[in-house]
Amino acid sequence: MKHRLPERELSELTLALIVAGLIGWFLGITGWTVAAVLTFHLWRSLRDLERLRAWLKNTEQDVPDSNGSWDEVFQGIYQLRRNERRSRDSLLNIIERARASVSALEEAVTLIDSDGNLEWWNPAAQALLGIRARDLGQPILNLIRTPSFNRYFQHGPYEDGLKMPSPRFPGQHLQFEITRFGDNDRLMIVYDITRLHNLEQMRKDFVANVSHELRTPLTVLSGYLETLNEQVDDFAPRWARALTQMQQQATRMNNLVNDLLMLSRLESQPDDREPQVVDVPRLLRQIHLDADAMAKPKGQSVTLEVEEGLQVLGREADLRSAFSNLMTNAVKYTPDKGLIHVRWWSDSQGAYFRVSDNGIGIDPIHIPRLTERFYRADAARSSATGGTGLGLAIVKHVLMQHKAQLDIHSDLGKGSRFTCTFPHAAIAL
User: Fold this and answer.
1) Are 44 and 63 spatial neighbours (Cβ–Cβ below 8 Å)?
2) What's the rounded mean pLDDT across residues 385-400?
3) Which CATH number fits domain 276-428: 3.30.565.10, 3.90.1520.10, 3.10.20.880, 3.40.30.10?
4) What is the mean pLDDT of the chain?
5) Does domain 196-268 have CATH number 1.10.287.130?
6) Is the pTM of this model over 0.70?
7) Which member of 26, 130, 152, 299 lies 3.0 to 4.6 Å from 337 by CB, making a disulfide possible if both were Cys?
8) In the chain, what percentage of residues exceed pLDDT 90?
9) CA distance between the termini of the chain
10) Is 221 within 8 Å of 149 (Cβ atoms)?
11) Are 170 and 130 a contacting pair, CB within 8 Å?
12) At what angle do helices 30-57 and 7-27 cross, to 10 degrees?
């Protein structure tokens, strides 16, 4: 689109040329007068253009005086620069406030570029990670050299976070959380969880110690009760029922202690242990024999369907405990003559272990809390079956250590379905 001179400028130039033409005609020098007018107009434009160039080099000076359209140009540019300056100052103020806010945080905050190099950090990062000014531009993996952090930083998954001992300060425990942004840049936030870690360790130690201390007297009591039950015919009839109940409660208490010790072991064992190839079909056949023996007195049917040759990387003892808990729970909580189906299969996404039954089901309100310690959807029913309330908590911990997930689906009056999903990376090829 062609630009047109402003109407005022065009009118002034036209009038000046007409007047100059008349004067030149009268004097007989029309061409010279017209040329003079055009030259003057051009000189004035070039003068204003030079003023604009000089002013643009230093816009802090006042806007130069000008006439006509050039004055509008100067004022327009001035307004644009003033608005730009206001926006810039506002943005700088926001950035400075954000920087000050982040600097005041107790958590360590670091910005890491797409190459894994440090770009910026707050003062807390210096205290928690030992980062110094000379570390600017250095790879974060050169500063935090632990294998667990290396795996977490390079492969994730970031949404899970990472808890580990401090690489710089003994006795300190940190939690790392990384978020991607921009062009594969990373924001890393580090929390000091030493106090929470110590409290959790105290709880684990207490449970483990109490469980160990209870095991010995329980063994003694169970031994004497077994001896007495063998001679129950020598006692009065009223003692027979008492001895039977004591034996049942001693057995239940022993199961509880064993489950507590199992949970304590799962929580305390390191996550970086080398996994072994587990022959799951063979393992499930062994567990199925035990579950089938439990089901026969109740007239239940326990069927097993396995994909032959489907093995996973993990720890056999832990998987045995998890699979056994799910299968025995199905037997315990399914009514007489119920149907229980166990399946082990795989697809392109991973491997799956599922236990289904046609029992009374579970109210959906209870499902989110079923894996909590000692949580019971039906306390009376659980007590009657001798449950400890720790079985699903054990399953959850075992699956977490195998990077697997537990999905629970249940319909009241129709049955329940417990599915363990193992990632494709866990399949032993």
Assistant:
1) no
2) 79
3) 3.30.565.10
4) 79
5) yes
6) no
7) 299
8) 18
9) 68
10) no
11) no
12) 150
